[in-house]
Amino acid sequence: LKARSKLMMISEHGDERGYLTVIEGNKTIPFEIKRVFYIYGTKEGIRRGFHAHYKTKQALIALSGSCTIHLDNLERKDEIKLDCPTKILILEPNDWHEMYDFSVDCVLLVLASHLYDAEDYIRDYELFKSLHT
Ligand code: T46
């Protein structure tokens, strides 16, 4: 059975000063965090991603603004809107993903389980299908 990407809500610490939200590796999210990157200043109408991974697990959070994530694990397709900093998408490597509908103020934070490795990307949908069927 394929691991399913899932949406999680995490709690926030709020007081009269505002809010603070924390993510701990192997605790809040189910992997150790080896790499952090963020996507911002995305131009209107842009769609990014178009790949799956061999092993990298990721956690996606829209720290500001919003965007939508298209997921496809060949058994099902989902569209997930990330629009608040306490909503986390745990993205499994076996999900083909595309990100779109970025608001101009969107800052998409990504926490990854592995260091960057171009060889970990499956960028050909036909190859993705053949590996997963
Ligand atoms: C993913 C989605 C959610 C690096 O040099 N190191 C890195 O760690 C990353 C993530 C990217 N790059 C370079 C590779 C490209 O020249 O930055 C450039 C843009 O990366 P890419 O075209 O892969 O960006 P997206 O938005 O298509 O995908 C990214 C992640 O790469 C990917 O793992 O799952 O965000």
TrEMBL record:
Residues 5-131 form the Sugar 3,4-ketoisomerase QdtA cupin domain. It comes from the Bacteria. It holds the Pfam family FdtA. InterPro entries: QdtA_cupin_dom, RmlC-like_jellyroll, RmlC_Cupin_sf. This is WxcM-like protein. It comes from Cohnella lupini.
